Amino acid sequence: MSWLYLILGGFLEIGWSYYLNESQGFTKLFPSVMAIVLIAFSFMLLEKAMKELGIGVSYAVFTGIGTAGIALIGMVFLGESISIGKIFFLSLLLVGMVGLKMSETGKEGSEQ
Fold this sequence. Notes:
Transmembrane segments: 29-46, 53-77, 83-100
Low-confidence stretches: 108-112
Pfam families: Multi_Drug_Res (PF00893)
Shape: flat
Distance between the termini: 18 Å
Main location: membrane
Helix content: over 70%
Largest sheet: none
Strand content: under 5%
Number of domains: 1
Number of helices: 4
Order of helices and strands: HHHH
GO cellular component, one term: plasma membrane
Structural class: mainly alpha
Organism: Isobaculum melis
């Protein structure tokens, strides 16, 4: 269940990043409210995931999903530039998240 919380929290991070941009410095009400609500829920889910998965992997995956997701949305839907370098480094980010998970040893969350 912790992985589900983590992935869902990462997707909510994509949402709040988008709405934070759309709020134009918290001058637009609806995007501002959406950003704040999604921030709260995404961090609540991150906290739930960290209880079992630990802070290192949880935060890396959480921010990785958010970073990759919002970068892809920017390139595909918001007119940001697309380059081989961006695609390469987003792929590297994904490999790093998978590598962190695969390099774990022992029982998850045993350091608590």
